[in-house]
Amino acid sequence: MGEVYSADDLIGGGEVFFDMDPPARLSVFGDPVAHSKSPIFHNAALRAAGINVGYVRIHVPAEKAQAAFRALPKAGFLGTNVTIPHKAAALAAVDEADDYARRSGSVNTVAVEGERLLGFNTDGPGLVRAIHEEFSVDLRDLRVVLLGAGGGAGRAIAVQCAMESCERLVLVNRTLEKAQALAAELASSFQTDRLVGPVDRIQAIPFDETALRQQLAHADLVINATSVGMRRTDPPLIPSALITPNLMFYDTVYASGKSRLLEDATAAGARCANGLSMLLHQGALSFEIWFNRPAPLDVMRQALTSLP
Ligand code: ATR
Hints:
Layout: E1 4-6, H1 7-11, H2 15-18, E2 24-30, H3 38-48, E3 54-59, H4 65-71, E4 79-82, H5 87-93, E5 96-97, H6 99-104, E6 109-113, E7 116-120, H7 123-135, E8 143-147, H8 152-164, E9 168-172, H9 176-186, E10 202-205, H10 209-216, E11 221-224, E12 248-251, H11 260-267, E13 271-274, H12 276-291, H13 297-305
Helix pairs in contact: 3-12, 3-13, 4-5, 7-8, 7-12, 12-13
Bound molecules: 2'-monophosphoadenosine-5'-diphosphate.
């Protein structure tokens, strides 16, 4: 766990950050934030690129989020990353946001331009790069089953799938109504004359064994956007009997070790990957936004994978 600064350090003018060597001019806002791995690979990237800027963790409670975002320009910051639970608040705080950030309802990257704050979301594009790297396939060519379509992460992934117009998208959620509302919102992206067989290109289903079995027969990639499965005591998200070796599994959770879902997938002979690659690529894309140049991806990957 690294050092954590407070929202007041920033709101008070950011003197503590000017005095650092190199001066901190980038950060990640979160609550909690101590676990964030972003400073490790961003600082490695900044050093490798010869940029005299540091990246720090800032603990931002909900009631100080708007003030903390607005304090960035005066504190001399170039921008910040944003993690749970402030991605929606970040969208509200910025002066302008790109199309994907607006549609997903969340911002994970803020860039300071003069007094203005520009908002981006690199989670979806980061997932696209991660899927390509892990499985050598493009998200747009896949039939995707998304577990946990009702949360913020699930929504961001579903919107990315819609913007890519992937072959199929099945939104799975414990609370079915949320998945149904999202499916209705995204339906227009799937109204083409592309033929994919006897099933609709976008569907919403609950976590129900029969419905899942039916959908997995017409799927290539299963993405977990819930946090279920990281604890030993968690029940399986989907019954292991439904996991077949032809499927690919991507778990957006990146805690060390395999989630229950990935353990079951590995045992069934399916290809699988955890969210480390998405973390890496969303970070690399943030770097590219801040510095308008390619990120030193190998250095970032090395920093991330050498962690205990
Ligand atoms: P957010 O990302 O907005 O903070 P969350 O409460 O963490 O939301 O939930 C993220 C997703 O995980 C949601 O899709 C949630 O399902 P609901 O919409 O039905 O709440 C899903 N989720 C959380 N716990 C779950 C569980 N035990 N089984 C299945 N899905 C679960």
